[in-house]
Specification:
By secondary structure, this protein is mainly alpha-helical. The chain is built from 18 helices and no strands.
Length: 430
């Protein structure tokens, strides 16, 4: 890697390798995401050849997350978010709890301490923003009821991650960790105060963004639009998306992704949402690709030969355990069969937040380095398998719909299968 120009080299090589990998994947009828991840592995330090700058790649990946969440917010209104809270809030909590418990139990069986096991389970509980949004967008599901539920679910998980990042340093000292800074000296009462401050900042952020942002942001966009300059309008959209995300993270303590989401929501009612989405789309796509490349760069293939059983167990928790939890909560709230399977498939993966939590756990002395390697393997393989999860979900939803259709068509008192036989005879006669 060119040490004098790491940013240019990372963007150039990352996109070039992603182009080759994505093209090869598409030619052999695999999802392009698989090619992007493979491109990242080739650029990583664990494979021979050119090595990319990981720190720069992760920064670029963060930009992708911000722009994607901003794009989602552009198509989301506060009313739509509140409409799915009865399903999204308990669903996110139940799914995160299930993944955390399963991960903790498995890690404890490996001989890890309970604090390390719980942190490991927590890293497996949070879905990837990039993967979920790309999957829903590619299948035209973002504006559907199940898409709204999945996005609301994601917002709740994002808030939970913010809380976890605050709590972990405060409790690390009680469990043998080695936290640094003021949080290391906290007792339970002080930790409660810190949590109250976190939720207070979040409430203040929402209270300011909704009334103030919905007046200021649309006004700025309309003023810039009147200048009839495409460049200035694009600059205004990107500047406000990144600016609000940065200020929300630094001042109010929420994540970049959550701040960008709310920035998009306040633009929703401006009448410029469609144009803003179109102007930011090329940037969202490019940085989303770099996100997958960055994930691939961090993966060490040696974990597959050293701990294959642990890798499979970790992947099973993410793909199967989280899916079953989502199916159970969606069925409990009497959602449609299509919605149940779509949401289960969309959330059967982990991503950027898992890596953030793993790094926090290692820094605090709560999680062994092996935990990060296993979490990263789950990230890589769950992302690669996610398109197949959607294929399976579509098949299950269609199977259920066919069964319902046949049941409805069968005359009362007729034996099972009579409707099918009649349909077959009718079709043959035609």
């Amino acid at each position: 890697m060119d040490a004098t120009h790491p940013l240019i080299a990372t963007i150039g090589l990352g996109l070039l390798y992603a182009l080759v990998g994505g093209t090869v994947a598409a030619l052999i009828r695999l999802p392009p995401i698989v090619g992007y991840l493979a491109a990242g592995i080739m650029l990583g330090p664990h494979t021979p050849g050119i090595v990319g700058d990981q720190a720069t790649a992760l920064e670029l990946a963060e930009l992708g997350v911000i722009l994607l969440m901003f794009g989602v917010g552009l198509h989301f209104s506060p009313a739509e978010l509140l409409a799915v809270r009865r399903v999204a809030v308990p669903g996110a909590i139940a799914q995160m709890g299930t993944a955390t418990v399963l991960g903790a139990l498995v890690a404890h069986l490996w001989g890890w301490s309970w604090p390390a096991a719980v942190v490991f389970g927590l890293t497996l509980s949070v879905a990837s923003t990039v993967v979920l949004l790309r999957a829903l967008t590619e299948r035209n599901l973002l504006g559907t009821p199940e898409g709204h539920i999945a996005v609301g679910w994601l917002v709740v998980e994002d808030i939970a991650v913010v809380v976890a990042l605050v709590v972990l340093p405060g409790i690390a000292g009680f469990f043998g960790g080695s936290p640094a800074g003021a949080l290391a000296r906290m007792d339970i009462e002080q930790l409660g105060i810190a949590l109250a401050i976190v939720f207070g900042k979040f409430a203040l952020f929402v209270a300011l963004m909704m009334p103030l942002g919905r007046r200021v942001v649309p006004w700025v966009l309309v003023m810039v639009a009147h200048l009839k300059s495409r460049e200035l309008f694009t600059l205004a959209v990107l500047g406000m998306a990144l600016g609000i995300a940065y200020v929300s993270a630094k001042v109010f303590g929420v994540s970049f992704a959550l701040g960008a989401f709310f920035a998009g929501m306040v633009m929703h009612g401006s009448g410029m949402a469609t144009r803003a989405a179109e102007q930011s789309l090329p940037f969202r796509d490019a940085f989303a690709v770099l996100f997958f490349v960055a994930v691939g760069m961090m993966f060490d293939p040696s974990v597959l030969t050293e701990r294959p059983g642990a890798v499979l167990a970790t992947l099973a928790i993410v793909v199967i355990g989280k899916s079953l939890a989502a199916i159970a909560i969606m069925a409990l709230f009497r959602q449609s069969r299509a919605a149940v399977w779509t949401v289960a498939a969309a959330l059967a993966q982990v991503g950027e937040f898992s890596l953030v939590l793993a790094e926090q756990g290692i820094a605090l002395g709560l999680l062994p380095v092996e935990g990060r390697d296993l979490a990263l393997s789950a990230v890589l393989f769950s992302i690669a398998l996610n398109p197949l999860a959607f294929v399976f979900a579509r098949w299950m939803a269609g199977r259920g719909a066919s069964a319902v259709s046949v049941t409805e068509q069968r005359p009362p008192g007729s034996p099972p299968g009579s409707a099918r036989s009649a349909d077959t005879v009718s079709s043959r006669s035609q």
